[in-house]
Amino acid sequence: MELPRYHRLRSTFYRLQASRCAACQATYFPPRPYCLHCGSRNLEELRLSGRGRVLSLTRVYQPSRGFSDGVGTLTALIELPEGLRLIAQLTDVEPAEVETGQEVEMVVRRLRTDEEQGLIVYGYKFRPVVGARAAEGANSA
User: Fold this and answer.
1) Measuring CA to CA, which residue among 14, 4, 9 is closest to residue 123?
2) CA neighbours within 13 Å on the CB side: how many for 69?
3) In this structure, are residues 100 and 55 in contact, taking their beta carbons and an 8 Å threshold?
4) How far apart are CA 76 and CA 57, in angstroms?
5) Within this chain, do residues 54 and 44 fall inside the same structural domain, yes or no?
6) In a domain, 129, yes or no
7) Number of structural domains in the chain
8) Same domain for 63 and 76?
9) CA 40 vs CA 24, 25, 36, 73, 119: distances in Å
10) 24 lies in the same domain as 85
């Protein structure tokens, strides 16, 4: 990823910034400059909750170009309360501990290193909700 593009998309990567059409209320992530439903260019910034639940998951064995250190990572389809679905890596969890329907929360982590430009790319990943893990431990004691 080029440095200017990375800086332009920082709010999307760090805060789950979306856009919502003021006319028809359609929500887009990543943000769009115009609404695909009604064509309006009057879109507002919307910060997503950063919480969701796992709908589906898989393990990556053949990573995309530039993500060679991503072999073995867990990737999930996550549904957010705002009605959006996104694909993200899971972190801070063992593969056997993840199941569909599990509550997750967004965290910022290193995604990759761009060796060519010397850029360390950070972005969103999801982990099981910390409070849920603490509550589970208390219930099993």
Assistant:
1) 14
2) 8
3) yes
4) 4
5) no
6) yes
7) 2
8) yes
9) 9, 11, 8, 38, 36
10) no
For residue 140, pLDDT over 50 is answered with no
**Quick one: 72 and 106 in the same domain?**
yes
Q: Is the pLDDT of residue 111 over 80?
A: no
| Model confidence pLDDT, tens digit, residues 46-105 | 999 999 999 999 887 766 665 556 666 899 999 999 999 999 999 999 988 999 999 999
Amino acid, res. 88: A
For position 100, which CATH number holds?
A: 2.40.50
Tell me the HSE value of 70 on the side-chain side, using a 13 A CA sphere.
21
The domain of 115 spans 49-140
